[in-house]
Amino acid sequence: MRDKVIQMIGEHVNIPANTITGQSHLISDLGLNSYDIVDLVCLFEDQYEIEIPDRTIRGLQRVDDIVAYLETVQ
Amino acid sequence: MIYVLDRLDEMTEADFRFGLSILPQERQKKARYYQSTPDQYACVLSYLLLCYGLCVEYGITETIYFRYNSYGKPYSRDYPHVYFNISHCRCGVACAISDRETGVDIQDIRQKPVRESLAKRVLSASEYSAWKKSKSPDRLFYRYWTMKESYLKQKGTGIQESMSALDAEGLDSLPEAYAFYMEKEMYCLSAFGVKDAKVRIVTCAELFA
Questions:
Q1: CA distances to A49, A52, A54, B193 from A73, in Å
Q2: Which residues of B touch A55 (CB under 8 A)?
Q3: pLDDT digits over B127-186, tens only?
Q4: Tell me, what's the ipTM?
Q5: Chain A interface, mutation test: which of B28, B33, B69, B107, most A Cβ atoms within 10 Å?
Q6: Measured between CB atoms, which of B88, B118, B161 is closest to A38?
Q7: Dihedral, CA atoms, B105, B111, B114, B115, nearest 10 degrees?
Q8: Do A28 and B30 touch (CB under 8 A)?
Q9: B93 in helix, strand or coil?
């Protein structure tokens, strides 16, 4: 799951996947802004056919937060 | 006043190293954390643009140290009565300075086409309808996005609130909203809370003079 998430993030925001780890912070490490994050959330919604509530987004700070959330709802 | 630097490509490696050296430690650390060069440049430039604006408007020349509210909105530790907000995207950085709470958002409008799921999450029912009918749906979307984002940044909450619950066109009629919107070929920009807003385009040469 983590490899897939990293691959999707890398492709979405044009960052080499091999520079992203589970501990990468979406804002302070990867440079994502609010738009990138909301767009990314929608990408995961489309990919996994789930709905991610607005209130959940704030908790998705690191790559592993996304991995953990997706594993929970899958 | 809203300050915009939209020629990131004019910044040289030497400018970056010099800019980085005069940043406070906390900002240097933040800039170094970024993994891509454009993000590092934008981090340095947005801070220098703020310093430039504070010098122009208030004569402040000291180092600006940030503090953050519970949602992460920065304010000046030493000048809490001076309100500002910063935004950057891949084609520019923007800084709004005001005598009241303010929010600004700049967005690259050359990105990939806006996906249906993103539009549904962000737009109100009436906005979504207008977006579906629009001949320039991406531009319309970014107009809505920047207005909502800058409004939420002015409030200090950012994207914690549901964006689809807001109606962008209705925001500028709120009391003392002081809404501002501008669109260029490569980006659009919106701000709230800047009375009689004007945009001042700043070059790297001016910042590093």
A1: 10, 9, 15, 40
A2: 160
A3: 999 999 999 999 999 999 999 999 999 988 776 678 999 998 888 778 778 999 999 999
A4: 0.87
A5: B33
A6: B118
A7: -120
A8: yes
A9: strand
